[in-house]
């Protein structure tokens, strides 16, 4: 199978690299020249939270900077940032054959519909990446915690899913992926807390101070979703409304629940933290900002998420990397904006 990766960043390189390293597919990567130079010099080393490692030698990596290189692909994995989706779709449309599918492996909830503005609806397959990947440079891409790839069930995507599974990735195929996209948005709502604090994911889960901030952010997301009639899917088997309740429990209980739900690398951080570190625009407008927009449409307020968006944009503008805010400083920022009074949603 011929697979293209449009947007060879951390996720694109990890997923495409797994396909290539296992000989499950021929892979062409399209991305920035900086990444291409890195991979030509060092190849790819794909590391996992459980110390597994896949190595791809430099000569096996086909890396290009123009979308035209994806002509002849059977499937293209779109892994660009959400703000680039429309531009990328416009570039890809005249390149791909009618038989090629376009799979969105992106954060946010609106990217598949954006792609469908340029491709026939049945050719666009929504997907969710249920884990994070951080680039450690020199061609090393590290997955920090466990989770599946979810790809909406489609006859057209059957061969791709088989290839992904044979590469060693866990693939799920829900019939309707939309509720899962909203659940993933709930999880991603804490990316900004990671970016603003610089704290690893495990510290966010095990520090009572950071958990208080994350729980407040997610509480408000759930209130807004409920008001808008959005019903997120279960998160790793648990109803979404359970998440903030667990976060407010004593740390030993949170530790037990976390261990039962997923494996987390001690050093795992969010992609938004990586964006601030590399002085790149973040996706906060498509994550916490999506909740703010949903609240406006539903006629409710989302002061917590609005303040989070403001803080991330301020960090982007400063250009000094993650601001390293403590849990107390973050909580004070939310309180100063009057953004800590969101009521908890019912157990819908």
Plain-language structure description:
By secondary structure, the chain is of the alpha/beta class. Helices cover 43% and strands 14% of the residues. An 8-stranded mixed β-sheet has the order 5-2-1-6-7-8-11-12, sandwiched between helices. Strands 4-3-10-9 form a 4-stranded mixed β-sheet. Strand 11, helix 5 and strand 12 form a beta-alpha-beta unit. The radius of gyration is 20 Å and the shape is globular. The C terminus is likely disordered.
Poorly predicted regions are 342-348
Q: In which order are the strands of the major sheet placed?
A: 5-2-1-6-7-8-11-12
Query: What is the mean pLDDT?
Result: 93
- The total beta strand count reads 12
Structure characteristics:
single chain, 348 residues, alpha/beta, eight-stranded mixed beta sheet, four-stranded mixed beta sheet, 15 helices, globular, disordered C terminus
Describe the structure concisely.
This protein is of the alpha/beta class.
Q: Secondary-structure blueprint of this entry?
A:
Layout: E1 2-6, H1 10-21, E2 26-30, H2 33-42, E3 44-47, E4 53-56, E5 62-64, E6 75-78, H3 85-92, E7 101-105, H4 111-115, E8 124-129, E9 133-137, E10 140-143, E11 149-151, H5 158-166, E12 171-172, H6 178-188, H7 191-197, H8 201-206, H9 208-228, H10 242-247, H11 251-261, H12 271-277, H13 288-298, H14 303-318, H15 327-336
Parallel strand pairs: 1-2, 1-6, 2-5, 3-10, 6-7, 7-8, 11-12
Antiparallel strand pairs: 3-4, 8-11, 9-10
Helix pairs in contact: 7-12, 7-14, 9-13, 9-15, 13-14
